[in-house]
Structures are given as structure tokens and as C-alpha cells.
């Protein structure tokens, strides 16, 4: 199966389980205070808002995860990911040489729809530019036997997925069996092999505490995750800035202890440019501006591109009037 080679295909290594990595040292009021102050400082308007909105496009995993997904709507999603705006629209705001870079980072679909995405992206010559992410392992609940959860990964990779978004076993996490969570994610890492990046969904809204969010982040990174992702988009509480901050602290500490670099993917409920800018501000002010690239940061979102399009069109219209 022909696949994208946009990203150099280096995957993270599985490291030995070490319970000392799970110890955290933060207080909830501190987390909320910092997240709230970052959120307040992230308001931008006018041309800056358009620039940030265009940056956000390049970080989106454009997602459809619905029971009624069909080959046609997945194909339309892929076309939109390739060309979110007609090139003439952006002529006044983007340098001509950069227009080709204004596309989504990936499309994200169920395993059974990967072949449809692959077909369309191949047809448009975009397999090298846009990754195909598949959710797997009994998404969204993970409440299935391990054997079939692992088989889903192989199925999606064989169909052309280059990124696998797995869900962790919340049952094991909630009873404190972190070694059990680690062991499963290690097998998921092995099932991806070097053919696909592994993104691990923590389902933070079901983990019960920020300490558990930190532990789950560490366990997944030890197991070899390339990205840690907040949510499936199906939990009652999905991506929030405080949770993002705790995951970022885990990423920073993990890098300090092991040298291994792991990306962040907030997902679920990120629907407008204002939210996207708040997340990008959070990342910029903690991990640094260089983290805002598709290899290290993604938005998992089904509706964000609609608001981005609105903001960009309004911005371009203002420029034309000026
Ligand atoms: O992984 C992506 C999420 O499922 C998308 O969630 P959303 O539909 O709330 O944007």
C-alpha cells in the first residue's frame, strides 16, 4: 500500500516501565490559575487572527467519526483537507509560494473508511502531504477484547493509515493498574510497527483526576507513543486547557528524563478560532513556538475548519475594503 512519506518515518521507542515517572508535583489551583491566565492573554483580532487561523489549518486532523460515514463524505472531507480555500481567496494574504502549504495535516476516520480516504488522497496526489489517521482499539470506549483491538490496528495500517489513534484502557487506569495500561499500549506500539505513528487517546474526561491524566500521559510515553491526545470527542468532557497544561508538563518532564520527544493532540469540542488560538498560545508559552508544527502538535476536530473559513473570509473581505 502506497503511503505518505511527508514525515520522516521515525517512531518513538518503547522504554522500560518505571513507576517513578508517574509521580507528579502540581496542585489543581495552580493548574487552573495558569491555564486561565494563558486563556485571557490569547485574544487576537484583525490580521493577526487571520494569520493564526491559517496556521491552525495546517495543524488540523480533519475528522469524521460518525456511524453514517460513507465513501462519499470521507472523499469530500479529504478534498476539503487538501484545499480548504480556493487559492484566489488567499492571494492577498498569503505569499504565492506558500499557498500550496495551506492544507490540513491529516484526515481522521474509522478503520473501515481508511481505504476511501487513501483512494481520494491518492487521486489528488496528496498522500505525501496529508496523513491518514485511523482511530482504533475499540474507539471510543475501548471496551473490547485485546485481540480484536490489536487486529484493528493492523487492518487500518494495511488499508493505508499512517497514524493510529488508539484509546487507552480506562478500566485499568481507574483501578490504578498503570503497568496493565502500559503493557497494552506496548502491544499497540508493536502493532503499528514502523509503518504508523502511534497517538494515544487518554479520554481525560473519564480519568477522574489530573493526577491520573499525568500518569496516563507518562505511561503512554513510556510505551512509545508519538503523540498523546486528550479525548475521543465522545466523552462528556473533552479537551480543556488545564488538562492540556498537565499533559504538556508530562511531555516536558518526559523529554527531560529520556530525551524522547512526544507530540500533543487536543481533540473534542474545539470548534472555533478563539479556542484554537488559546491552545496555540498555551503551547507557544510552554513548549515553544517550534512545537506548533504538524509533527508535534495537532487539533483533532470535526467542526473547527468551518469557523476558520469564516474568520479567513471575513478577514480577506476587510482587506479588500481597506
Ligand atoms: O479526534 C477527534 C474528535 O473526535 C473530534 O471531536 P469534535 O467532533 O468534537 O471536533
Automatic annotation (TrEMBL):
- Enumerate the UniProt keywords alphabetically: Lyase, Schiff base
State the protein's name: deoxyribose-phosphate aldolase
Q: Does the keyword Lyase apply?
A: yes
- Which protein family is named in the record? Belongs to the DeoC/FbaB aldolase family. DeoC type 2 subfamily.
**What SUPFAM superfamilies would the database entry show?**
Aldolase
Q: Which GO terms describe its biological process?
A: carbohydrate catabolic process; deoxyribonucleotide catabolic process; deoxyribose phosphate catabolic process
Q: Which reaction does it catalyse?
A: 2-deoxy-D-ribose 5-phosphate = D-glyceraldehyde 3-phosphate + acetaldehyde
Amino acid at each position: 500500500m502506497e503511503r505518505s512519506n511527508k514525515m520522516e518515518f521515525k517512531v518513538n521507542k518503547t522504554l522500560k516501565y518505571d513507576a517513578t515517572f508517574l509521580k507528579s508535583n502540581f496542585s489543581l489551583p495552580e493548574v487552573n490559575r495558569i491555564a486561565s491566565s494563558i486563556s485571557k492573554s490569547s485574544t487576537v483580532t484583525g490580521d493577526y487572527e487571520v494569520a493564526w487561523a491559517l496556521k491552525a489549518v495546517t495543524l488540523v486532523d480533519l475528522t469524521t467519526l460518525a456511524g453514517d460515514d460513507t465513501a462519499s463524505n470521507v472523499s469530500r472531507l479529504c478534498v476539503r483537507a487538501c484545499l480548504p480555500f480556493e487559492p484566489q481567496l488567499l492571494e492577498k494574504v498569503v505569499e504565492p509560494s506558500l499557498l500550496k502549504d495551506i492544507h490540513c495535516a491529516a484526515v481522521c476516520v474509522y478503520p473501515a473508511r481508511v481505504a476511501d480516504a487513501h483512494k481520494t488522497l491518492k487521486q489528488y496526489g496528496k498522500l505525501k502531504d496529508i496523513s491518514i489517521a485511523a482511530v482504533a482499539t475499540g474507539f471510543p470506549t475501548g471496551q473490547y477484547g485485546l485481540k480484536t483491538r490489536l487486529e484493528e490496528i493492523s487492518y487500518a495500517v494495511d488499508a493505508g493509515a499512517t497514524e493510529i489513534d488508539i484509546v487507552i484502557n480506562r478500566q485499568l487506569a481507574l483501578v490504578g493498574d498503570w503497568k496493565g495500561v502500559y503493557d497494552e499500549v506496548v502491544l499497540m506500539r508493536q502493532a503499528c510497527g514502523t509503518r504508523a505513528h502511534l497517538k494515544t487517546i487518554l479520554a481525560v474526561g473519564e480519568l477522574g483526576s489530573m493526577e491520573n491524566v499525568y500518569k496516563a500521559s507518562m505511561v503512554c510515553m513510556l510505551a512509545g507513543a508519538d503523540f498523546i491526545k486528550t479525548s475521543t470527542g465522545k466523552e462528556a468532557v473533552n479537551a480543556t486547557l488545564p488538562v492540556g497544561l498537565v499533559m504538556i508538563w508530562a511531555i516536558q518532564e518526559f523529554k527531560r528524563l529520556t530525551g524522547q520527544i512526544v507530540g500533543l493532540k487536543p481533540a473534542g469540542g474545539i470548534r472555533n478560532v478563539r479556542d484554537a488560538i488559546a491552545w496555540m498560545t498555551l503551547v507557544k508559552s510552554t513548549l515553544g513556538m517550534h512545537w506548533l508544527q504538524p509533527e508535534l502538535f495537532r487539533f483533532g476536530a470535526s467542526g473547527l475548519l468551518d469557523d476558520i473559513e469564516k474568520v479567513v473570509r471575513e478577514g480577506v473581505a476587510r482587506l479588500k475594503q481597506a
